[in-house]
């Protein structure tokens, strides 16, 4: 901080956070280990984000009503709770058979969840909890693989057959 008391230091730190090779004295093995561990953090964020979608639709959406009649029920993403909404705004955003103002879901998540077999709000809550658990597990796995005892060696990263088997088993179950 004494050498560079400007915000440039902060922006440079953010810009080079994933530029592992620019950091001092990093070996090829350490580079691979950092990238490998960061993947667990990325998975944790994805699982947490998806868990939030499931939870909010189960809490404020109309998934069960949509499952019963997907052609005539508009999928609700979430309710709008804004104390500054006047009556014209409330009327403009009250749609899809909702009792109050809502945002309609145009993302296709209702259709995707229906396709994979989810049918009730309980299914959505269960999925949200499961993904929250996977998020925590991914964070722990990322931290664990940064510990000296659990760091994979460079030969593990260079073994193409093991890497192929690992990724194909994840892809195909």
From TrEMBL:
Alphabetized SUPFAM superfamilies for the sequence: Photosystem I subunits PsaA/PsaB
Membrane-spanning residues: 124-146
Pfam families the record matches: PsaA_PsaB
Keywords annotated in UniProt: Membrane, Transmembrane, Transmembrane helix
GO biological process: photosynthesis
Domain of life: Eukaryota
Cellular component GO terms held in the UniProt record: chloroplast thylakoid membrane
Full protein name: Photosystem I P700 apoprotein A2
